[in-house]
Amino acid sequence: MTGLTDRQRDIIQVAIRIISRKGIQELTIRNLARDLGITEPAIYRHFQSKSDILAAMLEYLHRDTIAIFDQVQDGESALDRLRDYFSRLFERLRENPATAAVVFSDEAFMNDDRLAATVRALVELTIDNTTNLLTLARENGEIRADVDEYDLATMLAGGVRLLVRRWHMSGNGWDLAAQGRSVIETFVKLVEVPR
Amino acid sequence: MTGLTDRQRDIIQVAIRIISRKGIQELTIRNLARDLGITEPAIYRHFQSKSDILAAMLEYLHRDTIAIFDQVQDGESALDRLRDYFSRLFERLRENPATAAVVFSDEAFMNDDRLAATVRALVELTIDNTTNLLTLARENGEIRADVDEYDLATMLAGGVRLLVRRWHMSGNGWDLAAQGRSVIETFVKLVEVPR
DNA sequence: GAGGAGTTAGTTATCGATCACTAACTTTGT
DNA sequence: ACAAAGTTAGTGATCGATAACTAACTCCTC
Description:
9 helices; homodimer
């Protein structure tokens, strides 16, 4: 369904792990081959170029993020769905902290137009999802209507991004989900219309 | 006072410009020399290593950010000082858009412990400044007291960071100060205690 | 079911390009 | 005349990528 072989998936996972632990500068074909336990040319049996590996990696993360949004329950209130969405994002990061690092390696993809566009789309996805839920919340009358919802989405998504960045920089040394929940609840408290 | 020669300042400015336009991957001694109009070894007359150039660049940005915070007027209310602070940050970015790019190249400094610590401190600086102003605002009774101010600082600083990132990614194609003001005012509207 | 043909996934060895950096020499300004 | 700031010419290391080859497995034909 994803169009990837098992071996291609292996390579992507190892690539993500390298980026997570050592930064994207350390993601070389050499290091990738070493961690996979094969030689460098063998990698080219599975991907035509390093750029293709990165593209597949970004596409994988993109699909994964879409899947998370799709899992968010339908019946709840928009604010509950917002809580659910970020809770699931935090859960994924806890299970696979490596994914966080990739999203903060934007700059590394600037050279390659295709990769730059993909990583940009990946970042925008979370913002768009947030904006959509906030629009729904306003339509439902769950949040105050006297503030721009795009500004709200910017603050919420930006705040969570900053939190994840600091968590990643700290070596994942604290409970992201707990801190994240605190930020989300603070946000909800600010925008919620008392019922 | 800064301990830098004129030539060292030239080099830092050109380095910042390269990072801004092409990303940190393109910041090589070769490209730096070419843009400066001299040969590569000449650079080593002014800095002992590439790492030293990056360290000096980060230190320069750090001093600059501190200077901006110090310029914020004293007499106003804490919320007005907050507005003033971010307004000055946006103004600096408008005058020198290159500085934005550097702060988003965190990952590039991960290899070098000294650089990593410096860039981390640079990012924390804005958050700390924001937190301090929010603490003051609460003490003055300007903002509601039922929300965690560290969460507030995370959302505000994170939101602004995200905004700046998108502005940079768009090739500085729109008015950052105007969009930034909108985010700040939305934030103020959320936290302000009606008087 | 035996045996060639083709495929898959690896190997060793090597390529040209580029990286940060250096030694030795020359030019320039005071 | 001397020091600062430039030059030419080169270093070893590492980058992504390729050529040539091989072991192991599958598939097709008779």
